Amino acid sequence: MQKLLTELKKQLSKGQDTMIVTIVASDGATPRGAGARMLVGSEGRICGTIGGGSVEFRSEQLALDALKNQTSQIKHFELNNKDVENLGMICGGDVTVYFRFINGKDAAIASLCDTALEQFAERKTSWLITELTDGVDGLIGLYSEKLGLVGIEDSDIIPFIKDITNTFSINNKLYYVEQMLSSGYVYIYGGGHVAQELVPILNRLNFRCIIHEDRAEFLKPELFEGAFAIRKVAFDNLGPLKEITKDDYIVVMTRGHGFDQVVQEQMLNTPAKYIGVIGSAAKVAQVKQNIMSHGYSKEDVDRIITPIGLMNVKGNTPAEISISIAGQLITMRTTGELLR
Question: Which helix (H) or strand (E) holds 121?
Fold first, then answer.
């Protein structure tokens, strides 16, 4: 999203008309789900993707036609054997795509791009809101707790915004809302091989990672591509931890069980939404017993997700473990639910 908005701002600065093409609903085994976007100019796709293949090819053609006619439109693709529009797909499912015309001289959209990019720079949680209309240009707005509504005046939509990715109807208008950025951080304790694989993956997924280590040789920025911060700490005394909020994720993967345990106990004194710990099932049972013997309740230790990551990802290399952890964090961020 940040890249698309940056490119859109560039096109607006040159006065170039564009189309934002967005999947606003999908069902079944479609190539990409709701929220996939691409930006199309007079020469074709500029950036982004809605899944490639026939859907994207046909959508690019429709976008070029709409760009010439300076219109916005909604298009439904039925990807099955009874296609309303035969796209040659075999995956099955339905996709609803919104084509939003952007006038190259639209100062309001340019200003909205600036505001949205400022939210990215400040790492503020924000949502992009698009009014879905056929034939005319629907409103595009932004919402954040800091700014409130920007670009849209109907405050009745605010209760519907925080469903992350959602299409809803209110006051006879249809809206699509998508969370652009979560304000939460991923606090990673331990800078070993798994952490070094995990940070670049999470960075590409717009998670901000803060590495904590007690060994100088594991505090080098080149080991953690895209890390927000790297800190030297003493695992047995991490301090008051007041900066950790209910929006944050904790990943514990120190060099030893003893350090893992003392970090876990300290994390249980925070409101973090996720506390994941690397380790085997055998280790889990023993560590939980040890923590409870130090005065923590079963309810406390049940907050700890261990073994960490998606269990159906069977690989055990650092890269494979990192993929399973990233998948679990994505699910927590997008649904608020834990997937094992």
Answer: helix 107-122
- Which residue has 């499912």 as its token pair? 93
Average pLDDT, the chain: 88
Tell me the two tokens of residue 219: 């505090």
Q: pLDDT at position 77, please?
A: 84
Contact 52, 87 (CB under 8 A): no
* Sign of the alpha-carbon dihedral angle for 140, 7, 42, 94: negative
Secondary structure of 46-105 as H, E, C letters: EEECCCCHHHHHHHHHHHHHHHHHCCCEEEEEECCCCCCCCCCCCCCCEEEEEEEEECCC
User: Rounded to whole angstroms, how far apart are CA atoms 137 and 338?
Assistant: 38
Tokens of 140: 């595009």
The angle subtended at Cα 147 by Cα 143 and Cα 153, nearest 5°, is 60
Write out the DSSP string of 252-270.
Answer: E--SSHHHHHHHHHHHTTS
Q: Is the pTM of this model over 0.85?
A: no
User: 293, 246, 244, 282: which is closest to 266 by C-alpha?
Assistant: 244
